[in-house]
């Protein structure tokens, strides 16, 4: 659906087309090996033993029965585990407390690994792990998340412009919106295969960044980075939780140390995914909007209370997106954090923006209702000319274009203004809209790409980037083919190995901006150096190009999401027969995989709207609905018609490729659109996700 | 998972004897529940007695008009069987509303009846649970209660039975055929499962070593118009918050001549709604009386703080299902009323 416009160095039109995934046949045939699947004749298996208290000390460990069990190779605990560097300087968001596994008797969260068994088989390891007996000195723990706590921390100074208290206008929306704790559950769980050979270690790892793993492991162990190799060509989803390392990787490294020349495998069980690899913090969002009768905002005030851990701080920046969404002279956005005896939160698809666009976008719907405005018009009236947060001009901002095009495609014009006006059989029907937003994030780490002519007009393009299922294998092939002016099948891309040139983390939707721009630069350099008829073996490399105007502009992607919601008049059951999103996210490199990213994000947003909630039982300190029967993720039957469209946006300022990120924006705003549509269907305003049938039972008269 | 021995039984009585002789033995059917529990440490049998090859896999019409379902008939096969679809469609609907296609392909009729509660604390060996470890306490009493009981619970256990199939069988007055090492006996489905009382570790009245060999359905003409409605948090692959199986027959004057109602998701056992049935029988079939019957059944409900909504939900689901089976019954041929193939069957 993109129209053609002038692009730099576009020779073949490969950029913007929608070729099938180059690695698709290997994945379908099962020959694309994921970390745990590598065949190793010397394989051994690790099973963690997890703490059953939330705070205290391990007083005693009895490993005798486990060590005597058949097939057991080693039993590790804090008394015998190899030492990690306590002064390690870890890159990025790595949490030292979380990674210093088996280094002391201290227990900081329920489910923390306190021992591990390495055995000849998976079954032997699991069995022996159950034979390890631990005695604890238990201390009182505190896992009670609440915005009403008196000990909330202010992690950094609030963002303030004007004076929200002085904001004027007769219309006030002052409400509290909440989102729950949620757990990342990529289809492939966090997996490692680790093997030591002398003072060198090789990791086959399910990760969003081979170099990030290499640097972190090298730092923890005090090794030269050259002694750590990380292989990760195929990754079955990450959603952020495979950005930073978590405890299982370190356990595998320690376990493998105990059995040199053995390939020690560890894949988190689904249950372990709920305690060992991070999660999205719950949020409580107090949103106060003040506007005139025409809906023009004079004040925006957002306080997001989030959960963090005593073991390490991670702030879900849910008050962030309100800084730059809508114009208002008086603004305050801030965070408060409850630091509890719980695992450390981490990234989950669109951290900050995803929960942080729920409260404000429902509040905007409430503002529209209060002012008697169409919800689209309420947003149009508050469109800023410059980025409210920084005062900088936008590189591009096409929110209104997304709203308008989405309204046309969705059939918004027929919508009754009043809620509860449409009934079809035993269903109340409503529609809703919300905006999407995701910033153009600077890449996490540098990148470098190497282009080599393999002869006969065929090229090999190498960098260590991790394709976590996004389509990078294919999109990077397109970028290289387009710049080199050769057919796609003449380009072989090599990814996912720390032995290849440096690549930034697959995080913050930066893959195409970072690796795409780097491949673009390397291929351009190749043609400049070697011309159109290069010798076999000719090479050129390039680093991630600087973005010239990075500091001069506010750079963000936008979107608009529309939902139709049906609520059953007997039971309150909620169905979402239609979702439609329109996005403005710069240049779309691969129409097929981009659509998959948008639709996937929206599906996950639907799942957030109706289903996902980790139930942390504060008495114990752990998540009790820790499997897929109890932690609901949208099933096929919940997902009906989901459409994703995009407008052709040319933004040469964001990077040479013109690409913004698309991996995360799809999840942002979906839940608000669904909640707003549910209000329109029923007249019941739900300010919390997941929306559940009990929210509507009174309204439907049950 | 603990190491265990695996044996194959030669026949039903032999299987019953093998298990009866060893307190740590268990029958292995489809394994969809037991094997999960072995992985979680919830169950640790020392011996598994495989019964899946025993000749208990037929669905056959009985001479006196009912149907006999072998204990090993897989849930998928039972749901698809022409006799069931034609004469007891409520059973097909209930089966197809449960679990997933893959699980239904493995799960057996007897195994489905004997599946254990999905209470999150029962499944988590790091928390106290009277059902899993008698005397340790009930974590759900002050914990996560969305899926817990509103009827017939005790201070020792507030868990619910998770089966959909058993709810339909309860409405259909099924008999469960039980073999022990010596004899065969029949247990009415309504008496198979227990309320928790002070012994929640016992889900059923069966003794260790009792083997279910078949389930028998009586001839029940009104079952042709029976219906299963399952209300849940997700459109498929979710346990019931509340489910209703109902059948109704009408007299010549249009009044309710007979009715069967059973509920799922509300109690430690499939809940036969006798009070509601009593309130409806031999009276006019009106929306007001459907609602009154639902109210009568829920009068004794004692919800927990985390599931108070289930009382209103159950009332409304009963009323709606009665409305639907009434329309079906009035239509006579099953095509006269609305909603034969609703959303719920997905």
UniProtKB/TrEMBL annotation, chain A:
Presence of keyword Oxidoreductase: yes
Tagged with keyword Oxidoreductase: yes
InterPro entries cross-referenced by the UniProt entry: Ald_Oxase/Xan_DH_a/b, Ald_Oxase/Xan_DH_a/b_sf, Ald_Oxase/xanthine_DH-like, AldOxase/xan_DH_MoCoBD1, AldOxase/xan_DH_MoCoBD2, AldOxase/xan_DH_Mopterin-bd_sf
Key words of the record: Molybdenum, Oxidoreductase
Cited SUPFAM superfamilies: CO dehydrogenase molybdoprotein N-domain-like, Molybdenum cofactor-binding domain
One Pfam family cited in the UniProt record for this chain: MoCoBD_2
Residues in the signal sequence: none
Domain Aldehyde oxidase/xanthine dehydrogenase a/b hammerhead positions: 29-140
Alphabetized GO MF terms: iron ion binding; oxidoreductase activity
Region annotation Disordered: where it falls in the sequence: 1-20
UniProt name for this protein: Xanthine dehydrogenase family protein molybdopterin-binding subunit
TrEMBL record, chain B:
Highest taxon in the source lineage: Bacteria
Gene Ontology MF term list: FAD binding; oxidoreductase activity
UniProt entry keywords in alphabetical sequence: Oxidoreductase
Domain FAD-binding PCMH-type per the UniProt entry, residue ranges: 1-222
InterPro entries assigned to the protein according to its UniProt record, in alphabetical order: CO_DH_flav_C, CO_DH_flav_C_dom_sf, Diverse_Substr_Oxidored, FAD-bd_PCMH, FAD-bd_PCMH-like_sf, FAD-bd_PCMH_sub1, FAD-bd_PCMH_sub2, Mopterin_DH_FAD-bd
Gene3D superfamilies: 3.30.465.10, CO dehydrogenase flavoprotein, C-terminal domain, Uridine Diphospho-n-acetylenolpyruvylglucosamine Reductase, domain 2
SUPFAM superfamilies the UniProt entry points to: CO dehydrogenase flavoprotein C-terminal domain-like (SSF55447), FAD-binding/transporter-associated domain-like (SSF56176)
Xref: SMART domains: CO_deh_flav_C
Protein name: Xanthine dehydrogenase family protein subunit M
Organism: Streptomonospora mangrovi
